[in-house]
Amino acid sequence: MMKQDTIGHVLLVAAATICCGILAWRTLSLGRHVQEASIVQSRKGTKNALYTYSGENIKWAACGQVDNCPLECSSIEVPKDHFSINNFDNETFNIPLVRMRGKNATQNLLVNPGGPGGSGFAFMYDDALDIMDVIDESFHLLSFDPRGVNSSRPLATCYPDQGTRKRLSEIRATDPSRDSPDVYAWTANFVHACADTMGEAGRYINTPQTAADMNNILDAVRQDDMRVIIDGIANHFDWYGALIEGKDFIDTDKVLYGIFDECVKAGSNCTLSALADNSEELYRKFLDLTAKIRAEPISVYINSTLYGVLDYHSLWFNGGIRPRPSWPMDLGIHLKDGPSGPKYWPQGRTNLLDKLLPWYGNSSFAFAQNKLYYAKQQWRIPRTHGFVPRIDVETAHPLLVLSMTFDPVCPLASARVGAESFRGSRLVEVKGYGHCSQAMKSSCAVAHIRNFLQEGVLPDTHVQCEVDNEYYVKPE
Ligand SMILES: *[C@@H]1O[C@H](CO)[C@@H](O)[C@H](O)[C@H]1NC(C)=O
Ligand SMILES: *[C@@H]1O[C@H](CO)[C@@H](O)[C@H](O)[C@H]1NC(C)=O
Ligand SMILES: *[C@@H]1O[C@H](CO)[C@@H](O)[C@H](O)[C@H]1NC(C)=O
Ligand SMILES: *[C@@H]1O[C@H](CO)[C@@H](O)[C@H](O)[C@H]1NC(C)=O
Ligand SMILES: *[C@@H]1O[C@H](CO)[C@@H](O)[C@H](O)[C@H]1NC(C)=O
Ligand SMILES: *[C@@H]1O[C@H](CO)[C@@H](O)[C@H](O)[C@H]1NC(C)=O
Fold it and tell me: What pLDDT is recorded for position 19?
């Protein structure tokens, strides 16, 4: 079996750039290292008990577990607009928090789940145990649903309910030119509904506001002196400044080739390797198959309630027979970070197509973002933040930047741009395929992460780390 994470991100190159998060922590001030929980409120037994830790400003409640590791939850209110002194109405966003306590920890590692659009609760359920291994339980893992996401309120959504989403979100977009008139007309409704559903709150759901929310979270647990790790990085100059984010997919073909290359290397562990003598031949056979399917889609019948058509678009962009993905949640945030709407984009369908077609010609994966660009062009909610990325930024502590060598959506080149933008930061590269450094195990990368978090020490130069585990294990 291919590692799920790798294949997931290669073939499911989702309709928007998905990037990993920011790990950030602040050391506790002296005198607050001992955190003893004390019950502050209890309703009929201990089930709903609220408790506090000395030195913190918030109350917690038990909220389930992952394997045998208990979780605790809390929430904070944050200003609707961190960047305006005119927040007269005192409106707030509610940011839910979730924490898994490290056995030998006195400090928190604050994890931004990334995306944007990722949920910190989903991160806890899916990835926290792996990260706990990496950090050797020497920190509590603290995460959150960013403003607009999942259980945070108000929500960034373009549909008032799931029924409406199901009913109205389907639009055929498999051919750049043929489907363009339909997608263009459909998008006019979509962006209108986004603005109506989110209302005024929509203006304040963006990444700079979320970064400021992270300061409020650190204040709530009374930590200061932040160190930052970033992992799986988009080109942030393009993210905030470019109309077409043309650098996202520069390594995607290499990752796809890597699936077949590693398959051949894995021999009998990868059944497909029997189909060819070498990597090039296996890759070529796969491309031939996709070309065939493009001309003649294949019907796949399981039974009368479960069947579908394997067509080129669902194979290439969704990695299988699936209903097409509906609009990803992160659209609402992505579009408000960068230049969207008539203020920045030439209007009219043919003007848009003139911009998109050359780009689609450049990369066989770029079309995955087709709907995103239609929405960018017609977007109605104004950008309200004034953040402009800079080079040569000096931070209190230099950053640790993590990247795979071949990442399907956040290429190494973008990680380099990130590392070069922050003075003194260092890049630790894991020499493998996948999205974000945790896609493959690397004891070398783990050593650098621990050194940075526990001792504050960065490597002297850019480091390349080998991958420890196999891409393919023997099928059961
Ligand atoms: C907002 O908060 C300030 C300071 O707490 C208070 O003086 C003011 O009355 C509040 N405004 C409204 C509209 O609630
Ligand atoms: C826990 O932390 C203490 C103090 O930093 C250290 O001496 C001890 O070795 C740690 N134990 C484990 C299991 O990491
Ligand atoms: C938030 O995300 C978690 C993890 O995916 C999920 O279990 C939960 O239902 C979500 N909550 C809401 C309100 O969507
Ligand atoms: C069809 O197959 C699916 C998956 O095995 C199963 O859940 C479903 O009940 C089946 N439907 C019928 C009508 O047999
Ligand atoms: C297409 O690729 C060429 C060469 O790599 C590059 O110069 C150009 O900017 C790309 N065009 C778009 C629209 O991304
Ligand atoms: C095949 O999978 C097994 C685990 O099932 C692993 O130990 C072995 O290293 C793998 N071999 C190759 C060549 O990847």
Answer: 44
Query: Which pLDDT score is estimated for 328?
Result: 47
What ligand has the least distance to the C-alpha of 96?
3
Any atom of ligand 6 within 6 Å of the Cβ of 472: yes
pLDDT score, position 43: 56
67 and 113 inside one domain: yes
State residue 10's pLDDT score: 22
Mean pLDDT by 10 residues, the chain (476 residues): 25 30 38 50 67 95 96 97 81 97 93 93 96 95 97 94 91 93 97 95 95 96 89 95 93 94 96 96 96 94 92 82 47 88 97 96 91 96 95 95 96 97 98 95 97 96 97 87
Would 9 be classed as within a structural domain? yes
Quote the pLDDT of residue 283: 97
Quick one: 274 and 302 in the same domain? yes
Residue nearest to atom 11 of ligand 5 (CA): 359
Ligand 1 atom closest to 89 (CA): 13
Q: 349 alpha carbon to ligand 4 midpoint, in Å? A: 43
Q: Are residues 144 and 30 part of one domain?
A: yes
- Where residue 437 sits, what CATH number does that domain have? 3.40.50
Q: Please indicate, yes or no, if residue 339 is contained in any of the structural domains.
A: no
User: Residues 126, 141, 239, CA angle at the centre, nearest 5°?
Assistant: 70
- Cβ 246 under 6 angstroms from ligand 5: yes
